[in-house]
Amino acid sequence: MAGGNISSEKVDLLIYGPSRPILENGFSDQFVRHAFESKHDLERLAPAVAEKIRGIAVTYHSVPADKTALARFPKLEIVASFGVGYDHVDSTYAREHNIVVTNTPDVLTEEVADVAMGLLIATLREFIKADRYLRSGLWLTQNFPLSVGSLRDRKVGIVGMGRIGQAIGRRLDASRVPVAYHSRNRSPSVSYQHYPDLIEMAKAVDTLIVIVPGGASTAKMINADVLKALGPRGVVINVARGSVIDEPALIAALKSGTILAAGLDVFANEPTVPDELRTMQNVVLLPHIGSASVVTRNAMDQLVVDNLKAWFAGKPPLTPVPETPVKGR
Ligand code: NAP
Ligand code: 8YV
User: Fold this and answer.
1) Is 242's C-beta closer than 6 angstroms to any atom of ligand 1?
2) 326 three-state secondary structure
3) In terms of domains, do 77 and 134 share one?
4) Model pLDDT for residues 32-87, shown as the tens digit of each residue
5) 39 vs 115: CA distance, rounded Å
6) Which-ligand-closest: CA of 169?
7) Are residues 47 and 164 in the same domain?
8) Active-site annotation, residues
9) pLDDT tens column, 241-293
10) Which of 148, 157, 159, 219 has a C-alpha 20 to 30 A away from that of 198?
11) What is the pLDDT at residue 329?
12) Domain for residue 323, yes or no?
């Protein structure tokens, strides 16, 4: 990747997606900010301004930094994306055009692992139903029914044993729950049983926690065959991307009793969630809040700003994605 110019000249930046205080106040007056909330808004960007843009902050996963969007900016050097997942950024186009892409790994790992663990327990022990039960006054007449699900008799298969998968594993270890995992490569960082074949793992466990990146290589990997292999005690927790699950197959499996329950933080067509899921009793649904605390989202925003500042100070970006490595700045 080519380096940004180290000079005192002004740098035009595009803030693409919702803006927030750290993105507004974190840049010195060396930077000229242009803010556009959505792809639709971007169409209003004057070509004379587009020609000056050298850096983009993509501030939410719902704004696609696809080829059409990126191709508007002939002088683009860096796309600093908010979030560790960057399946909404065309990193292949970026690599081919000498544009570096950065994401925000690590700063959200423990937060997302907390949510995965909370979602697992809430799903198994039916916290949401129990809360509704109490509020409705039903507790005054009889105790809440015992939950069929429990963490105590489970074996969890983690799908994806990267940064967040390992943090989820640590939480399951502390809870004394046996763990196995599926990924394409064995991880040298863990000693859990590795299953290169997802169906084989689904047969061997009764719970899947899904935490792989989105994109073509993981699209609909949790399909009807995997759900059938998981079996009638099966529970699926998805904190990865909606694209990773075949959503109609999941709905059918939940309806027919092919699996027991699901806890979902992500959906195929966010923020629209199928009515069938919204009316089911054996699911817990969260509006993509894996990293959504003030402290963690601020750390993610700060890393977006720091990547851009490092680049335009002539230094290597802090967290380039593997597709666009930066060497020797
Ligand atoms: P990471 O460190 O890059 O780990 C990714 C893991 O997935 C690795 O173990 C990788 O192993 C595995 N993997 C990748 N492609 C695979 C494939 N085709 N089949 C099987 N395994 C595959 O990423 P991370 O930091 O843990 O984050 C993981 C993902 O979580 C992000 O990309 C994002 O989509 C999602 N996420 C969601 C939220 C939320 O709010 N719900 C928050 C943060 C992150 P191999 O390469 O060996 O296969
Ligand atoms: C963010 C996420 O909510 O980091 C990710 O991959 O999914 C979440 O932390 C999302 O990226 C916001 O755009």
Assistant:
1) no
2) coil
3) no
4) 999 999 988 888 899 999 999 999 999 999 999 999 999 999 999 999 999 999 99
5) 30
6) 1
7) no
8) 241, 270, 288
9) 999 999 999 999 999 999 999 999 999 999 999 999 999 999 999 999 999 99
10) 148
11) 72
12) no
Grade residue 302 by pLDDT with cuts at 50, 70 and 90.
very high
Length of the chain (residues)? 329
**Is the minimum distance from the CB of 320 to ligand 1 under 6 angstroms?**
no
Write out the residue range of the structural domain in which residue 80 sits: 11-105+294-312
Residue 82 carries which side chain, given as an amino acid letter?
F
Question: Is there a domain that residue 88 lies in?
Answer: yes
Instruction: Give me the CATH number covering residue 97.
Output: 3.40.50.720
Provide the terminal-to-terminal Cα distance of the chain, rounded to the nearest Å. 9
Rounded Cα distance between 329 and 322, Å, is 16
Nearest residue (by CA) to ligand 1, atom 46, is: 184
Give every CB contact of residue 133 below 8 A, 6+ residues apart in sequence. Answer: 139, 144
What is residue 147's predicted lDDT score, i.e. its pLDDT? 98
165 and 268 together in one domain: yes
Do residue 55 and residue 200 come from a single domain?
no
pTM of the complete model beyond 0.70: yes
Ligand number with the minimum distance to the CA of 300: 2
Give domain status of residue 327, yes or no: no
Same domain, 55 and 182: no
As for how many domains the chain has, the answer is 2
Same domain, 206 and 114: yes
Phi-psi domain of 51 (left: phi exceeds 0; alpha: psi -120 through 50; beta: other): alpha
Report the mean per-residue pLDDT for the chain: 96
Confidence band for 328, pLDDT divided at 50, 70 and 90:
low
